[in-house]
Amino acid sequence: MRARISVRLKPVIHDPQGKTVLRAARQMGYNEILSVRIGKLIELEIEADDKIQAREKIEELSHRLLSNPLMETYEIEWDGDR
Description:
Layout (H helix, E strand, L loop, with lengths): L1 E8 L6 H12 L11 E7 L5 H16 L5 E7 L4
Antiparallel strand pairs: 1-2, 1-3
């Protein structure tokens, strides 16, 4: 089973990387870009016989290790759910 976890900063958290990309894009003439937020995409594969248990493990891993719940949010997309 494969999953993609999108981790993003919460809207209230300052994003210096996003600001840098926005500034560079505007210097390159892309003035129509209004804002940029940088996140991370984590793709993983888990071996499991039970789909429910696999999902629970990935949820736990995402919350405990892959994201900082104080600053970030995460969203999981499962192969086959699209």
